[in-house]
Amino acid sequence: MNNLLYENNNHVLLKGKIKELPTYSHTVMGEGFFEMFVEVERLSEEVDVLPVTISERLIENFKIGDEIGIVGQFRSYNKLENGRSKLMLTIFVKELVNPKDMSEINQIYLIGYICKEPIYRTTPFGREICDMLLAVNRAYNKSDYLPCISWGRNARFVRDLEVGEKLEVQGRIQSRRYQKHKDDGTVESKVAYEISLSSVVLAHEQNYSNLNEFEMKEDMEARLSGKTAENLI
Predict the structure, then answer these.
(1) pTM for the whole structure
(2) What total of structural domains would you count in the chain?
């Protein structure tokens, strides 16, 4: 199957400011990859600090505070820590673009499958929330496992879906700080990354799977130019 079809499942558009400069992470097939962090403002004026992985081929003369525009994918990988496997999340850069040409600050579009039973709950103030883990196929028989959180009527919709259901979702990537209480009584401050969903619909087999490369290019250019806000679904 054409690898382009897998790229259609996972789109990230991100505009933010460099908070930490790239540091070496690993090498694959002779190509070095680096990790960095980017600050992205929310409409509420809060700031998400998001992990980014970038190839050495794309690294420029970055400075802290520089504005950056990213077209990429949200990916997961397993990292061994203290003898245990931990799911790590990162925004993988496919292309750098001029941030001034981007209409979106933080937007992600995915087609994937529910791979764990959704967890529904309400807050003490009555707000409805539902967590789910979405498996998004990638080339070479790989999959990314991406945590998503939905609210209100989207939460009510998701809570009744079964494992294996195919969805199209849209939202933004966010960082969230929380306190982990350890067995020895100490408290550790940690950061979680997740997708806050603004749209959840049952997927149809055609949609992006039938787009050719020319149509995909037109679609991405439309997103970058801001010609439409509805092309993302």
Answers:
(1) 0.82
(2) 1
